[in-house]
Write a structure and sequence with these properties.
Strand content: under 5%
Order of helices and strands: HHH
Number of helices: 3
Number of strands: 0
Number of domains: 1
Radius of gyration: 16 Å
Helix content: over 70%
Distance between the termini: 49 Å
Length: 110
């Protein structure tokens, strides 16, 4: 099996596993180890709960779509470039999750 395909499968699987973990076992209390941790989300328990629920949903959709993007990139592009495109998609998904979750927290005015 090609090393790039293995890297694709590992990154996609790990991101999906983390998103599933956040969805199924969200952090109950504000902590500095596990969960969506930003100053705004850690402001109070209501903000914490909302941010973790919302970001877990976004991460779940990103985690589901990432393997499809990776397979398409691997098949159509292949090699180093496909891995870079997949990593770019992965980083964009994380950035989008943070931006949308922070906007939600601002809108809800926790």
């Amino acid at each position: 099996m090609n090393q790039f395909l293995i890297l694709h499968l590992i990154t996609g699987t790990l991101f999906l596993a983390v998103s599933l973990m956040m969805k199924l076992w969200p952090p109950k209390k504000i902590n500095s180890f596990y969960g969506y941790r930003t100053p705004r989300s850690m402001k109070n328990q209501l903000a914490w709960d909302d941010a973790n629920t919302f970001s877990a949903d976004l991460m779940m959709w990103s985690g589901i779509s990432l393997p499809f993007v990776q397979v398409i990139c691997y098949v159509l592009i292949g090699g180093h470039i496909s891995l870079l495109v997949s990593i770019g998609y992965f980083l964009a998904a994380i950035l989008t999750t943070v931006v949308l979750t922070e906007k939600r927290l601002i809108k809800k005015n926790f």
